[in-house]
Amino acid sequence: MLSKKLAARLGLVKGEEPYLTVTLARLRQYGTPTEKKVILGGWLLSLLASISFGLLVVVEGWSGLPVPFGGIEVFITIYPPFLICLWWTLCFGWLWGAIPAYLATFVLALYSGMPLQWALLFSFANPLGFAAISIGYRAIRVPRDLRSVQSIAFYVLITFIGAIFSSAGALIWCYTNQIDTIGLLPIWQGWWLGGFLQSVLIVGPILFFTQPFVALWQRTRSELRAPEVEDLSRRILRLVLVLVLGVLGYGYLTIKLGVDRVESALEAVPGSPLLDATDVLTSTVWIFFWVVALIVLSIGVFNYRIFTRWESVVDALMAELSRLAQTDYLTDLPNRRAMSEVLEKQFSRFERHAEPGALLMLDLDHFKEVNDRYGHAAGDQVIRRFAEIVRAEIRLEDTASRWGGEEFLILLPRVDQTGAQAFAERLRSSVQEHAVEHKGQQIHYTVSIGIAFIGKGATLDDWISQADDALYTAKQQGRNQVVMRAGGDSDSAVVSEDAAPTS
Ligand SMILES: Nc1nc2c(ncn2[C@@H]2O[C@H](COP(=O)(O)OP(=O)(O)OP(=O)(O)O)[C@@H](O)[C@H]2O)c(=O)[nH]1
């Protein structure tokens, strides 16, 4: 996954404002009484208003305002349920808008005499448009507050696509009302244009004033949000498909309905020289359409390929960056920052499941002398060799880190005192036995080890400082030895001692 910060800075896919959707189940579980009252009450009111307005549209015969568009008079529909439900979709999530939109249209369709099976299908038109819009905002996380060029541009694009999908209802409406393709053109044009204009001119300003408050509230109420399950490239792929289908569907219907209209008009004048010219024109328009369709498809595929490539490059870079930030450059062991995270996890496992764990603090003895006598490069080599020995000794579930300078910290989870002691002793003697060769010289060195166990009531810091104390005792007692300290117990026990020269 992409780093949030980086992607936000790029302003491309994970902006500051993800499409936060509130789920009903989470609202019931985690919502405050006021939130439940305001949101559920508001939504139920919206549902009632949508159904009532939907019925009014049919009862009052609001068939749309006639407006000249593209050479014909189209009937721009005003459909209040669309406005209300689009707002809910944009601010709370698809289901919040889709359910009232579906029910409002369903009641309207049945009232106007549409057969049940067609009404069931017809009512999906607006939810379909809303789905396209929410897919868009899920993939491209531009804010919905319409306070920037980017935010407005995306809103206009995605509501256009949403309007095209929603206008699928016009096809069913005309079919069930036996309106032929000639009559379908002005209705369909008016349907999508109406949806689009309502989105931009009415819902847009409402969104401008309300969305910042909704977003602010949603940001602070993360427990109400639906968890995100899909990865980014799937979301982008869905958006590309929706855009391609929307644009092609729009182009296809516009041309098909326009051409049908011309052809039927020409049937009335057989033998007219216009027929030939129209044939040429329609064929040309269709060729143009298929060429554009191919171009739109290729651009879609191409953009998706660029995106996935970019995402995998960024992912690899981020993984490498995070590895570098967590790794010690000299030994390749986890560094102090990484080890601190591991320790916190182990400590919480101890607190929750009383899972035992031993912490070993190790320090190379008289290391200053090694540096002074053989040089800093030799000292580095000793540190590297020591890390190799540690790596060879630990199990898969253990974590060894360079805590700083010539100090190391090793965590042995699920280990008892005997096991920890045996491990430390093995390590200590292995170091003693393996001299480091540097420029033909044998450098002998030793290590002192302090062990501490997690104790009840102790904090993580206590645990680390107990290991440190044990190490200090080991140093005090002559170095090259292991000192173990049980959790919470201030008594330390020397478990091994084997003084040895450092060179
Ligand atoms: N070569 C090298 N030396 C380092 C590195 N990090 C720390 N040191 C050196 O390690 C030495 C640590 O010295 P001290 O803290 O005095 O401890 P010591 O000489 O090991 O003595 P005791 O710990 O008491 O046994 C210092 O000279 C540091 O400069 C490193 O990455 N490379």
Automatic annotation (TrEMBL):
Name of the molecule in the record: diguanylate cyclase
Organism: Marinobacterium zhoushanense
Species lineage: Bacteria, Pseudomonadati, Pseudomonadota, Gammaproteobacteria, Oceanospirillales
Catalyzed reaction equations: 2 GTP = 3',3'-c-di-GMP + 2 diphosphate
Sequence intervals crossing the membrane: 38-59, 65-87, 94-112, 118-140, 152-173, 193-216, 236-255, 280-302
InterPro entries, alphabetized: Diguanylate_Cyclase, GGDEF_dom, Nucleotide_cyclase, Rev_trsase/Diguanyl_cyclase
Entry-linked Pfam families: GGDEF (PF00990)
Record-annotated GGDEF domain positions: 355-487
Entry-linked CDD domains: GGDEF
Assigned keywords, A-Z: Membrane, Transmembrane, Transmembrane helix
EC code: 2.7.7.65
EC primary class: transferase
